[in-house]
Design a protein that fits this description.
The chain folds into two domains: about 110 residues, Roll (Urease, subunit C, domain 1); about 300 residues, TIM Barrel (Alpha-Beta Barrel), CATH 3.20.20.140. The termini are far apart. Helix 2 runs parallel beside helix 3, helix 2 packs across helix 15 and helix 11 crosses helix 12. The strands form three sheets. Strands 1, 2, 3, 4, 5, 14, 15, 16 and 17 form a nine-stranded mixed β-sheet that branches. A four-stranded parallel β-sheet has the order 6-7-8-9, sandwiched between helices. A four-stranded parallel β-sheet has the order 10-11-12-13, sandwiched between helices. The protein is an alpha/beta fold and about 475 residues long. The protein contains 16 helices and 17 strands. The longest helix has 19 residues. The protein is about 35% helix and about 20% strand. The structure holds zinc ion (ZN). The site of zinc ion has 7 residues, from loops. Zinc ion binds next to loops.
Length: about 475
């Protein structure tokens, strides 16, 4: 029998039901799926990749991002979410057009593939032009990635700010959003490797009426409803004042909890709220770097894991400054250990589950991906351990979690298609993607105005954060 792809002689971290780790092992792929895993496989193969001295494992899953922020990375740093939002984010993002959307998504796709990410979930709410999300989805599709695109819904505010602002070009009416969400679902859900979810911005951003209709629509279509929950501490004061409930409690009342509910961040939870998440089978995407960088706080992840909650990992937007999911996992581990004064608070094995099987569970695609097993989609990566920082190996998994970097991934495969081989991305023209991203960013900054440009030329600060020197 001839197979399309044969990966030879690697150490395979399967993440299958038995969590087998098999040394000197081969993986055979046909029709985009894994047909056999074992030692000394003898197939004719259209393509063979040698993985001697390497780890072969499931492709990594980024459960939450906003890829439009790829183009605004580096604009503003060392800032709280607010004022970053209204001083620097809004003037730029209110002007994102389909060309910018495509260029940003392509740059993100390139970075994701180079970091061994095979599935991306992007929360896209920038409907400054309704074509934006289509350009992003097409870009991921052409790059060969697997995607869960979260159709964002904002009918009130963006990040709870300045409702009267000229910058609120992404706010649309309830009717339009629901109609467009359906059209987008009809176009993309189940098309090749893309699934669609619905994504209310946050409790502040959307009206209760739209929230309820969104939940209803997600039930009708049997798709995820994914939203930002209790990320920053102030949100609970806001929801208690307005609805008499904490943020997660309010989402529970509105019907967003349950196996189709995905909560991003989930930092400021009471014991009762953690219990609601656990007993309803609600999913969580933990974004440790974004949460730390923005001063949000640290999510009670080890507690949720101990209660059996499916927790995946995400980067969130440009605040993370990275799409390296190994770095995200490592940070998640370090923060739990350090703050709980407990080296056992979260283990390397749990972090690997968050990157793979649990990430897949969160997105509802665990039957297809997240583990290497016969019949599953061949979404996998090969990590080169023949480097000083990864030798001697000892045990393979902790080296992957605590020492490896995204740049150690040499091959990235999605559905049997080799997207990157020997660090060269085959599904995209790397030079062209980077050049177009730079010119698209220049175009955005030009249209955003002087205050945004000042962020790039501000002087070294006399003290404190650099951005304060340019705030009038
Ligand atoms: Zn987010």
């Amino acid at each position: 029998m001839t197979v399309e792809l044969l990966i030879k002689n690697g150490t395979v971290i399967t993440m299958d039901a038995e969590r087998r780790v098999i040394e000197n092992c081969d993986v055979a792929v046909s029709g985009g799926r894994i047909v056999e895993i074992g030692q000394g496989l003898e197939y004719e193969a259209e393509k063979t990749l040698d993985a001697a001295g390497c780890v072969v494992c499931p492709g990594l899953i980024n459960g939450h991002s906003h890829v439009y922020q790829s183009l605004i990375e580096g604009l503003g740093y060392d800032m709280h979410f607010d004022p970053w939002n209204w001083r620097f984010l809004f003037p730029v993002v209110s002007k994102v057009n389909p060309g910018n959307a495509k260029a940003g998504a392509a740059l993100a796709a390139l970075e994701l593939i180079k970091n061994g990410v095979t599935t991306i979930s992007d929360h896209w709410y920038l409907h400054t032009d309704m074509d934006n999300i289509y350009r992003v989805t097409e870009t991921f599709d052409e790059a060969g990635l697997r995607a869960q695109m979260v159709f964002g819904l904002l009918d009130q505010t963006f990040a709870g700010e300045r409702t009267d602002s000229e910058y609120m070009t992404m706010i649309q009416s309830e009717e339009k959003l629901l109609e467009e969400a359906r059209r987008y679902y009809d176009t993309w859900h189940g098309t090749r490797r893309t699934t669609v979810a619905l994504g209310p911005g946050s409790t502040e951003d959307i009206s209760e009426s739209l929230m309820l209709k969104t939940v209803q629509l997600s039930k009708e279509l049997d798709i995820n409803v994914s939203t930002h929950v209790a990320g920053w501490i102030e949100i609970n004061s806001y929801t208690i004042r307005r609805f008499g409930e904490r943020d997660l409690e309010h989402f529970h009342t509105l019907g967003l909890t349950g196996p189709r509910g995905v909560m991003f961040h989930a930092v400021w939870l009471s014991d009762r709220e953690i219990e609601i998440i656990a007993t309803t089978g609600t999913k969580v995407v933990h974004c440790p770097i974004a949460n730390a960088y923005l001063g949000y706080g640290i999510s009670p992840v080890s507690r949720m894991l101990s209660l059996g909650v499916a927790v995946g990992l995400g980067t969130d937007g440009a605040a993370s400054y990275t799409y390296d999911m190994l770095e995200v996992a490592r940070t998640a581990g370090m923060l739990q250990k350090a703050t709980k004064l407990d080296a056992e608070a979260v283990t390397a094995e749990e972090l690997m589950e968050m990157l793979t099987v649990n990430g897949a569970k969160v997105l509802g695609i665990e039957d297809e991906v997240g583990a290497l097993a016969v019949g599953k989609q061949a979404d996998l990566i090969v990590v080169d351990y023949k480097q000083p920082h990864l030798l001697p190996v000892g045990r393979w998994l902790p080296k992957l979690i605590y020492s490896a970097r995204g740049s150690d991934v040499i091959h990235t495969v999605v559905a049997g298609r080799v997207l990157m081989e020997d660090r060269k991305v085959l599904s995209m023209d790397e030079e062209k993607v980077m050049a177009e991203a730079l010119s698209s960013r220049e175009d955005l900054i030009e249209r955003a105005g002087q205050e945004t440009r000042d962020l790039l030329t501000m002087p070294w600060p006399k003290s404190g954060p650099a951005w304060r020197s340019i705030v009038k």
